[in-house]
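anyone seen this seq b4? input:
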Amino acid sequence: MSDTNAVAVRAAKESTLGVAPTSPNLFDLSITGAPNLAFNPNTIVSEKIRADRQIDDLVLVGAEASGDINAEHSFEVHDLLLEGVFFNLFQTRFARTNTVVETQITAVVTATDTVTVTDEGDQPTAADIVRHEGFSNAGNNGFFTVLSSAGFTSYVTNENLVDETPPAGATSHVVGRRGAAGDLDALIAPNSVSSVVLDFTTLGLEAGDWVKFAGFSGNPDNDDYCRIAFAGVAANLLTFDIVPSGWGADAPVGSVDIYLGERLVNGVSRQSYFLEREYTDHSPITFEYFLGMVIEGFTLTAAAQAIAQVSFTFSGLDQTFSDSGTPTTKFSVDGAGRIAGATTVPLPSTQVLNTSSNVGRFARGGVPITGENFVLEASIEVANNLRQLIAVGFLGAVDIGVGEFGLTGSLNTYFDSAALARDVVSNTETSFDFRLEDDSAHVIIFDAPRIKFSEGSPEVPGKNDDVTINLGYQAIREPNLNYTAKYLRFRGVQ
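predicted toks r here
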Protein backbone atom coordinates (compact mmCIF):
# COMPACT_ATOMS: atom_id res chain seq x y z
CA MET A 1 0.00 0.00 0.00
CA SER A 2 1.03 3.61 -0.55
CA ASP A 3 0.58 6.17 2.23
CA THR A 4 -0.38 9.80 1.70
CA ASN A 5 2.31 10.81 4.21
CA ALA A 6 4.92 9.42 1.82
CA VAL A 7 3.93 11.68 -1.09
CA ALA A 8 5.87 14.81 -2.05
CA VAL A 9 4.74 17.40 -4.61
CA ARG A 10 7.12 19.87 -6.25
CA ALA A 11 6.98 22.51 -8.95
CA ALA A 12 9.18 24.39 -11.40
CA LYS A 13 8.27 27.01 -13.96
CA GLU A 14 8.46 26.11 -17.64
CA SER A 15 10.09 28.39 -20.21
CA THR A 16 7.87 26.91 -22.92
CA LEU A 17 4.38 25.58 -22.27
CA GLY A 18 4.46 21.80 -22.02
CA VAL A 19 8.24 21.43 -22.37
CA ALA A 20 10.04 19.92 -19.38
CA PRO A 21 12.71 22.29 -18.03
CA THR A 22 16.36 21.24 -18.27
CA SER A 23 17.99 20.25 -14.94
CA PRO A 24 15.18 21.90 -13.01
CA ASN A 25 15.20 23.26 -9.49
CA LEU A 26 12.05 21.63 -8.15
CA PHE A 27 10.56 23.57 -5.26
CA ASP A 28 8.82 21.61 -2.52
CA LEU A 29 5.16 22.52 -2.21
CA SER A 30 3.41 22.63 1.13
CA ILE A 31 0.24 20.58 0.71
CA THR A 32 -2.63 19.18 2.72
CA GLY A 33 -3.70 17.12 -0.27
CA ALA A 34 -3.92 16.87 -4.03
CA PRO A 35 -7.01 14.69 -4.23
CA ASN A 36 -7.92 15.04 -7.90
CA LEU A 37 -4.64 15.97 -9.58
CA ALA A 38 -4.69 13.51 -12.48
CA PHE A 39 -4.64 12.82 -16.20
CA ASN A 40 -8.31 11.99 -16.56
CA PRO A 41 -9.26 9.84 -19.56
CA ASN A 42 -12.12 10.77 -21.87
CA THR A 43 -13.70 7.60 -23.18
CA ILE A 44 -16.60 6.75 -25.47
CA VAL A 45 -18.51 3.47 -25.51
CA SER A 46 -18.50 1.96 -28.99
CA GLU A 47 -21.80 2.27 -30.84
CA LYS A 48 -21.16 -0.99 -32.72
CA ILE A 49 -24.26 -3.18 -32.73
CA ARG A 50 -23.72 -6.82 -31.78
CA ALA A 51 -26.26 -9.63 -32.11
CA ASP A 52 -25.30 -10.95 -28.63
CA ARG A 53 -26.25 -7.61 -26.93
CA GLN A 54 -22.76 -6.95 -25.57
CA ILE A 55 -20.62 -3.82 -25.62
CA ASP A 56 -17.80 -4.23 -28.11
CA ASP A 57 -15.28 -1.66 -26.77
CA LEU A 58 -14.55 1.37 -24.60
CA VAL A 59 -12.47 3.72 -26.73
CA LEU A 60 -9.99 6.20 -25.28
CA VAL A 61 -10.45 9.40 -27.30
CA GLY A 62 -8.73 12.00 -25.12
CA ALA A 63 -7.42 12.94 -21.69
CA GLU A 64 -7.28 16.01 -19.51
CA ALA A 65 -4.49 16.99 -17.12
CA SER A 66 -6.05 18.91 -14.26
CA GLY A 67 -6.64 18.99 -10.52
CA ASP A 68 -6.21 20.84 -7.25
CA ILE A 69 -3.43 21.32 -4.74
CA ASN A 70 -4.65 22.28 -1.26
CA ALA A 71 -2.52 23.82 1.48
CA GLU A 72 -2.32 25.90 4.63
CA HIS A 73 -1.18 29.43 3.91
CA SER A 74 2.21 30.72 5.03
CA PHE A 75 4.35 33.70 4.15
CA GLU A 76 6.40 33.16 0.94
CA VAL A 77 5.68 29.41 0.74
CA HIS A 78 3.23 29.76 -2.17
CA ASP A 79 4.76 32.75 -3.95
CA LEU A 80 5.93 30.66 -6.92
CA LEU A 81 2.33 29.60 -7.58
CA LEU A 82 0.79 32.99 -6.79
CA GLU A 83 2.63 34.42 -9.79
CA GLY A 84 0.70 31.89 -11.87
CA VAL A 85 -2.56 32.95 -10.24
CA PHE A 86 -1.99 36.61 -11.06
CA PHE A 87 -0.32 36.07 -14.48
CA ASN A 88 2.49 38.32 -13.33
CA LEU A 89 5.75 38.43 -11.34
CA PHE A 90 6.45 39.86 -7.91
CA GLN A 91 8.26 43.15 -7.79
CA THR A 92 11.68 42.47 -6.30
CA ARG A 93 14.02 44.55 -4.17
CA PHE A 94 17.62 43.79 -3.25
CA ALA A 95 17.69 40.16 -2.11
CA ARG A 96 20.36 37.53 -1.53
CA THR A 97 19.56 33.98 -0.46
CA ASN A 98 21.61 30.90 0.32
CA THR A 99 19.94 27.71 -0.91
CA VAL A 100 20.97 24.16 -1.69
CA VAL A 101 21.39 25.39 -5.26
CA GLU A 102 23.31 28.63 -4.85
CA THR A 103 25.22 30.64 -2.22
CA GLN A 104 24.62 34.38 -2.62
CA ILE A 105 25.75 35.55 0.85
CA THR A 106 29.37 34.49 1.18
CA ALA A 107 30.72 36.07 4.39
CA VAL A 108 30.13 38.35 7.36
CA VAL A 109 33.19 40.28 8.54
CA THR A 110 33.29 41.59 12.13
CA ALA A 111 36.17 44.00 11.69
CA THR A 112 34.30 46.14 9.17
CA ASP A 113 30.65 45.10 9.79
CA THR A 114 30.57 44.07 6.15
CA VAL A 115 28.41 41.50 4.40
CA THR A 116 29.84 40.12 1.16
CA VAL A 117 27.44 38.89 -1.51
CA THR A 118 27.45 37.70 -5.09
CA ASP A 119 27.02 40.15 -7.95
CA GLU A 120 23.39 39.85 -9.08
CA GLY A 121 23.27 43.27 -10.71
CA ASP A 122 21.81 45.26 -7.81
CA GLN A 123 22.88 46.67 -4.46
CA PRO A 124 21.45 48.29 -1.35
CA THR A 125 22.02 52.01 -0.96
CA ALA A 126 22.90 54.08 2.08
CA ALA A 127 20.00 54.29 4.57
CA ASP A 128 18.31 51.15 3.23
CA ILE A 129 17.02 48.88 5.98
CA VAL A 130 18.07 45.27 5.41
CA ARG A 131 16.73 42.28 7.25
CA HIS A 132 18.89 39.23 7.89
CA GLU A 133 17.32 35.86 8.67
CA GLY A 134 18.73 32.36 8.98
CA PHE A 135 22.32 33.31 9.90
CA SER A 136 24.20 30.97 12.25
CA ASN A 137 25.06 33.70 14.75
CA ALA A 138 22.00 35.25 16.36
CA GLY A 139 23.68 38.66 16.38
CA ASN A 140 23.71 38.68 12.60
CA ASN A 141 19.94 38.25 12.39
CA GLY A 142 17.62 41.24 12.56
CA PHE A 143 17.20 44.67 11.03
CA PHE A 144 20.24 46.74 10.04
CA THR A 145 20.76 50.09 8.36
CA VAL A 146 23.14 50.19 5.40
CA LEU A 147 25.91 52.76 5.73
CA SER A 148 27.53 52.13 2.34
CA SER A 149 27.88 49.54 -0.40
CA ALA A 150 30.76 48.58 -2.67
CA GLY A 151 29.47 47.85 -6.14
CA PHE A 152 27.19 44.84 -6.21
CA THR A 153 29.31 42.64 -3.94
CA SER A 154 29.21 44.00 -0.36
CA TYR A 155 27.59 46.42 2.04
CA VAL A 156 28.44 47.89 5.45
CA THR A 157 25.87 48.07 8.28
CA ASN A 158 25.40 50.24 11.33
CA GLU A 159 25.59 47.35 13.81
CA ASN A 160 28.32 45.09 15.12
CA LEU A 161 28.25 41.88 13.12
CA VAL A 162 29.97 38.60 13.94
CA ASP A 163 32.32 36.67 11.65
CA GLU A 164 30.61 33.75 9.93
CA THR A 165 30.12 31.94 6.66
CA PRO A 166 26.33 32.11 6.29
CA PRO A 167 24.65 28.71 5.92
CA ALA A 168 21.95 27.52 3.54
CA GLY A 169 18.75 29.30 4.49
CA ALA A 170 20.42 32.64 5.24
CA THR A 171 18.69 35.60 3.58
CA SER A 172 19.25 39.34 3.23
CA HIS A 173 16.49 41.59 1.93
CA VAL A 174 15.98 45.33 1.66
CA VAL A 175 12.75 45.93 3.58
CA GLY A 176 12.66 49.71 3.94
CA ARG A 177 14.44 53.05 4.15
CA ARG A 178 15.47 55.12 7.16
CA GLY A 179 14.84 58.83 6.82
CA ALA A 180 17.41 61.32 8.04
CA ALA A 181 16.78 62.79 11.49
CA GLY A 182 13.97 65.33 11.29
CA ASP A 183 13.39 64.78 7.56
CA LEU A 184 9.96 63.08 7.48
CA ASP A 185 6.86 64.93 8.65
CA ALA A 186 3.27 63.66 8.81
CA LEU A 187 0.67 66.06 7.41
CA ILE A 188 -3.12 66.27 7.20
CA ALA A 189 -5.42 67.78 4.55
CA PRO A 190 -4.34 65.83 2.62
CA ASN A 191 -3.04 62.94 4.67
CA SER A 192 0.57 62.63 3.58
CA VAL A 193 4.24 62.47 4.55
CA SER A 194 6.69 65.09 3.36
CA SER A 195 10.48 65.12 3.15
CA VAL A 196 13.30 67.47 2.32
CA VAL A 197 16.14 65.01 1.71
CA LEU A 198 14.48 61.67 0.87
CA ASP A 199 13.24 61.32 -2.71
CA PHE A 200 10.21 59.01 -2.54
CA THR A 201 10.37 58.33 -6.29
CA THR A 202 13.58 56.32 -5.72
CA LEU A 203 11.84 53.73 -3.51
CA GLY A 204 10.05 51.76 -6.23
CA LEU A 205 6.61 52.84 -5.03
CA GLU A 206 3.43 53.32 -7.04
CA ALA A 207 -0.19 54.28 -6.39
CA GLY A 208 -2.05 51.57 -4.48
CA ASP A 209 1.04 50.33 -2.63
CA TRP A 210 0.92 50.09 1.15
CA VAL A 211 3.76 51.31 3.37
CA LYS A 212 4.33 51.17 7.12
CA PHE A 213 5.99 53.84 9.25
CA ALA A 214 7.89 53.65 12.53
CA GLY A 215 9.28 56.61 14.45
CA PHE A 216 6.49 59.20 14.63
CA SER A 217 7.19 59.83 18.30
CA GLY A 218 4.78 62.75 18.64
CA ASN A 219 1.81 60.74 17.32
CA PRO A 220 2.43 56.97 17.58
CA ASP A 221 -0.89 56.27 15.82
CA ASN A 222 0.93 57.15 12.60
CA ASP A 223 3.23 54.14 13.03
CA ASP A 224 0.98 51.88 11.00
CA TYR A 225 0.02 51.02 7.41
CA CYS A 226 -1.04 53.61 4.82
CA ARG A 227 -2.13 53.17 1.19
CA ILE A 228 -0.68 55.49 -1.43
CA ALA A 229 -3.31 57.47 -3.35
CA PHE A 230 -3.58 57.78 -7.13
CA ALA A 231 -0.79 60.12 -8.32
CA GLY A 232 0.40 60.02 -4.71
CA VAL A 233 4.13 59.53 -5.29
CA ALA A 234 6.13 62.75 -5.70
CA ALA A 235 9.79 63.43 -5.01
CA ASN A 236 9.18 64.90 -1.56
CA LEU A 237 5.58 63.96 -0.82
CA LEU A 238 3.66 60.71 -0.35
CA THR A 239 -0.12 61.19 -0.34
CA PHE A 240 -2.48 58.55 1.06
CA ASP A 241 -6.11 57.58 0.54
CA ILE A 242 -6.16 55.20 3.52
CA VAL A 243 -4.46 55.98 6.82
CA PRO A 244 -4.75 54.48 10.32
CA SER A 245 -7.31 55.76 12.77
CA GLY A 246 -5.77 58.59 14.75
CA TRP A 247 -3.53 59.81 11.94
CA GLY A 248 -2.30 63.29 12.74
CA ALA A 249 0.34 65.90 12.04
CA ASP A 250 3.77 65.19 13.51
CA ALA A 251 7.26 66.54 12.94
CA PRO A 252 9.61 64.31 14.95
CA VAL A 253 13.21 65.37 15.45
CA GLY A 254 14.44 61.79 15.13
CA SER A 255 14.50 59.49 12.14
CA VAL A 256 11.39 57.80 10.73
CA ASP A 257 11.53 54.42 9.03
CA ILE A 258 9.35 53.55 6.03
CA TYR A 259 8.82 49.83 5.40
CA LEU A 260 8.20 48.68 1.84
CA GLY A 261 6.45 45.67 0.37
CA GLU A 262 6.91 43.77 -2.87
CA ARG A 263 3.79 43.90 -5.04
CA LEU A 264 2.04 41.39 -7.26
CA VAL A 265 -0.89 42.64 -9.36
CA ASN A 266 -3.03 40.86 -11.92
CA GLY A 267 -1.46 40.91 -15.37
CA VAL A 268 -1.39 39.17 -18.74
CA SER A 269 1.80 37.05 -18.64
CA ARG A 270 0.78 33.39 -18.55
CA GLN A 271 2.96 31.24 -16.27
CA SER A 272 3.13 27.47 -16.78
CA TYR A 273 4.42 24.80 -14.44
CA PHE A 274 6.11 21.40 -14.47
CA LEU A 275 4.83 19.39 -11.49
CA GLU A 276 6.48 16.40 -9.89
CA ARG A 277 4.66 14.02 -7.54
CA GLU A 278 6.93 11.49 -5.84
CA TYR A 279 5.62 8.33 -4.18
CA THR A 280 8.52 7.69 -1.82
CA ASP A 281 7.23 4.42 -0.35
CA HIS A 282 7.09 2.64 -3.72
CA SER A 283 9.87 0.23 -4.59
CA PRO A 284 11.19 1.39 -6.94
CA ILE A 285 10.12 4.99 -6.23
CA THR A 286 7.47 6.24 -8.65
CA PHE A 287 7.66 9.73 -10.10
CA GLU A 288 4.59 11.28 -11.72
CA TYR A 289 4.99 14.36 -13.89
CA PHE A 290 2.51 16.91 -15.20
CA LEU A 291 3.49 19.21 -18.06
CA GLY A 292 2.06 22.50 -19.27
CA MET A 293 0.12 23.14 -16.07
CA VAL A 294 -1.47 26.60 -15.86
CA ILE A 295 -3.33 27.84 -12.81
CA GLU A 296 -7.04 28.14 -13.52
CA GLY A 297 -8.22 29.04 -10.05
CA PHE A 298 -7.17 30.03 -6.56
CA THR A 299 -9.07 30.23 -3.29
CA LEU A 300 -8.02 31.67 0.05
CA THR A 301 -10.39 31.09 2.97
CA ALA A 302 -10.13 32.57 6.45
CA ALA A 303 -12.75 31.17 8.86
CA ALA A 304 -12.98 32.11 12.52
CA GLN A 305 -10.57 30.30 14.85
CA ALA A 306 -9.02 28.27 12.05
CA ILE A 307 -5.98 28.03 9.79
CA ALA A 308 -5.93 30.13 6.63
CA GLN A 309 -6.50 27.68 3.77
CA VAL A 310 -5.52 27.99 0.11
CA SER A 311 -6.24 25.92 -2.97
CA PHE A 312 -4.73 26.06 -6.47
CA THR A 313 -6.58 24.56 -9.45
CA PHE A 314 -4.50 23.53 -12.47
CA SER A 315 -5.30 22.86 -16.11
CA GLY A 316 -2.61 21.44 -18.37
CA LEU A 317 -1.40 19.43 -21.33
CA ASP A 318 0.16 16.12 -20.41
CA GLN A 319 1.20 13.60 -17.75
CA THR A 320 3.62 10.69 -17.44
CA PHE A 321 4.82 8.15 -14.86
CA SER A 322 8.46 7.18 -14.49
CA ASP A 323 10.59 4.86 -12.34
CA SER A 324 13.89 3.03 -12.61
CA GLY A 325 12.28 0.03 -14.26
CA THR A 326 10.01 1.88 -16.67
CA PRO A 327 11.46 5.35 -17.30
CA THR A 328 9.42 7.88 -19.21
CA THR A 329 10.47 8.66 -22.77
CA LYS A 330 9.01 12.19 -22.78
CA PHE A 331 12.21 13.75 -21.38
CA SER A 332 15.63 12.68 -20.11
CA VAL A 333 15.71 10.93 -16.73
CA ASP A 334 18.34 9.68 -14.31
CA GLY A 335 18.83 6.10 -13.14
CA ALA A 336 15.98 6.36 -10.63
CA GLY A 337 13.56 7.51 -13.31
CA ARG A 338 13.54 11.11 -12.07
CA ILE A 339 13.92 13.96 -14.54
CA ALA A 340 17.63 14.37 -15.24
CA GLY A 341 19.60 16.95 -13.28
CA ALA A 342 16.76 17.76 -10.87
CA THR A 343 17.51 19.44 -7.53
CA THR A 344 14.97 19.54 -4.72
CA VAL A 345 14.72 22.99 -3.10
CA PRO A 346 13.26 22.86 0.44
CA LEU A 347 10.36 24.98 1.63
CA PRO A 348 10.90 28.29 3.44
CA SER A 349 10.46 27.72 7.17
CA THR A 350 7.71 30.25 7.85
CA GLN A 351 4.83 29.50 10.18
CA VAL A 352 1.32 28.46 9.21
CA LEU A 353 -1.04 31.43 9.50
CA ASN A 354 -4.06 31.23 11.79
CA THR A 355 -7.14 33.44 11.64
CA SER A 356 -6.98 34.63 15.24
CA SER A 357 -3.58 36.05 16.23
CA ASN A 358 -2.22 36.32 12.68
CA VAL A 359 -4.99 38.56 11.29
CA GLY A 360 -3.97 42.21 11.34
CA ARG A 361 -7.25 43.50 9.96
CA PHE A 362 -10.20 43.04 7.63
CA ALA A 363 -11.41 46.31 6.13
CA ARG A 364 -14.18 47.55 3.87
CA GLY A 365 -13.84 50.97 2.31
CA GLY A 366 -10.55 51.42 4.15
CA VAL A 367 -12.23 51.06 7.56
CA PRO A 368 -11.64 47.97 9.74
CA ILE A 369 -14.66 45.67 10.05
CA THR A 370 -15.09 45.46 13.81
CA GLY A 371 -17.66 46.28 16.46
CA GLU A 372 -21.13 45.49 15.17
CA ASN A 373 -20.18 43.37 12.16
CA PHE A 374 -17.38 41.04 13.25
CA VAL A 375 -16.22 38.75 10.46
CA LEU A 376 -17.08 35.04 10.69
CA GLU A 377 -15.43 34.03 7.42
CA ALA A 378 -13.91 35.75 4.41
CA SER A 379 -12.70 34.35 1.12
CA ILE A 380 -11.18 35.37 -2.18
CA GLU A 381 -11.61 33.28 -5.33
CA VAL A 382 -9.71 33.84 -8.57
CA ALA A 383 -10.75 32.35 -11.92
CA ASN A 384 -8.50 32.75 -14.96
CA ASN A 385 -11.17 31.25 -17.23
CA LEU A 386 -8.83 28.89 -19.05
CA ARG A 387 -9.72 26.68 -22.01
CA GLN A 388 -8.03 23.43 -22.95
CA LEU A 389 -7.58 23.54 -26.73
CA ILE A 390 -7.92 20.12 -28.34
CA ALA A 391 -7.03 19.00 -31.86
CA VAL A 392 -7.12 15.95 -34.10
CA GLY A 393 -4.06 13.75 -33.60
CA PHE A 394 -3.47 14.64 -29.93
CA LEU A 395 -4.58 12.77 -26.82
CA GLY A 396 -4.26 15.76 -24.51
CA ALA A 397 -4.68 19.49 -25.04
CA VAL A 398 -2.38 21.26 -27.51
CA ASP A 399 -2.57 24.66 -25.81
CA ILE A 400 -4.25 26.54 -23.00
CA GLY A 401 -6.52 29.44 -23.91
CA VAL A 402 -6.79 32.33 -21.48
CA GLY A 403 -9.90 34.28 -20.50
CA GLU A 404 -10.49 37.23 -18.20
CA PHE A 405 -9.16 37.59 -14.65
CA GLY A 406 -12.18 37.15 -12.43
CA LEU A 407 -11.99 37.76 -8.70
CA THR A 408 -14.96 37.11 -6.46
CA GLY A 409 -15.35 36.19 -2.83
CA SER A 410 -17.50 36.19 0.23
CA LEU A 411 -17.70 38.07 3.49
CA ASN A 412 -19.78 36.46 6.21
CA THR A 413 -20.40 38.69 9.25
CA TYR A 414 -22.73 39.07 12.17
CA PHE A 415 -25.72 41.22 11.22
CA ASP A 416 -25.75 43.99 13.81
CA SER A 417 -25.95 46.89 11.38
CA ALA A 418 -27.82 47.41 8.10
CA ALA A 419 -24.86 49.20 6.49
CA LEU A 420 -23.59 46.13 4.61
CA ALA A 421 -27.08 45.12 3.45
CA ARG A 422 -27.63 48.64 2.09
CA ASP A 423 -24.40 48.32 0.10
CA VAL A 424 -25.85 45.24 -1.62
CA VAL A 425 -29.17 46.70 -2.69
CA SER A 426 -27.71 50.07 -3.69
CA ASN A 427 -24.88 48.55 -5.79
CA THR A 428 -22.42 50.65 -3.80
CA GLU A 429 -18.75 50.64 -4.78
CA THR A 430 -16.31 50.00 -1.96
CA SER A 431 -12.98 48.28 -1.39
CA PHE A 432 -11.84 45.22 0.51
CA ASP A 433 -8.44 44.61 2.07
CA PHE A 434 -7.01 42.34 4.72
CA ARG A 435 -3.67 41.88 6.40
CA LEU A 436 -2.02 38.69 7.69
CA GLU A 437 1.13 38.84 9.79
CA ASP A 438 3.11 36.00 11.33
CA ASP A 439 5.05 36.01 14.59
CA SER A 440 8.32 36.76 12.78
CA ALA A 441 7.15 40.14 11.42
CA HIS A 442 6.40 38.88 7.90
CA VAL A 443 3.27 40.56 6.52
CA ILE A 444 0.85 39.88 3.66
CA ILE A 445 -1.66 42.47 2.44
CA PHE A 446 -4.38 41.60 -0.06
CA ASP A 447 -6.20 44.59 -1.55
CA ALA A 448 -9.10 44.74 -4.00
CA PRO A 449 -9.49 48.52 -4.41
CA ARG A 450 -12.88 48.39 -6.14
CA ILE A 451 -15.61 45.86 -5.41
CA LYS A 452 -19.37 45.63 -5.50
CA PHE A 453 -21.48 43.24 -3.48
CA SER A 454 -23.36 40.85 -5.73
CA GLU A 455 -25.57 39.17 -3.15
CA GLY A 456 -26.34 38.93 0.53
CA SER A 457 -29.25 39.33 2.91
CA PRO A 458 -29.78 38.75 6.62
CA GLU A 459 -30.03 35.07 7.52
CA VAL A 460 -32.21 33.97 10.47
CA PRO A 461 -31.46 30.23 10.92
CA GLY A 462 -33.71 29.54 13.90
CA LYS A 463 -34.16 30.26 17.58
CA ASN A 464 -31.22 30.59 19.96
CA ASP A 465 -28.89 31.52 17.14
CA ASP A 466 -27.17 34.55 15.60
CA VAL A 467 -28.41 36.60 12.68
CA THR A 468 -25.68 36.81 10.05
CA ILE A 469 -25.26 38.21 6.56
CA ASN A 470 -23.21 36.33 3.98
CA LEU A 471 -22.16 38.75 1.26
CA GLY A 472 -20.83 37.80 -2.15
CA TYR A 473 -18.63 40.36 -3.89
CA GLN A 474 -17.21 40.94 -7.35
CA ALA A 475 -13.89 42.76 -7.77
CA ILE A 476 -13.67 45.05 -10.78
CA ARG A 477 -10.89 47.05 -12.41
CA GLU A 478 -9.98 50.25 -10.61
CA PRO A 479 -9.67 52.72 -13.51
CA ASN A 480 -6.97 54.93 -11.99
CA LEU A 481 -4.81 52.11 -10.68
CA ASN A 482 -5.53 49.89 -13.71
CA TYR A 483 -5.66 46.63 -11.77
CA THR A 484 -8.26 44.51 -9.99
CA ALA A 485 -6.24 43.10 -7.10
CA LYS A 486 -2.88 43.50 -5.42
CA TYR A 487 -0.99 41.07 -3.18
CA LEU A 488 1.85 42.62 -1.18
CA ARG A 489 4.52 40.81 0.84
CA PHE A 490 6.55 42.61 3.48
CA ARG A 491 9.68 40.66 4.36
CA GLY A 492 9.98 42.46 7.66
CA VAL A 493 8.51 45.37 9.61
CA GLN A 494 9.10 46.92 13.02
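The mean pLDDT is 96. The CA atoms of residues 68 and 382 lie 14 Å apart. kinda curious what u guys think
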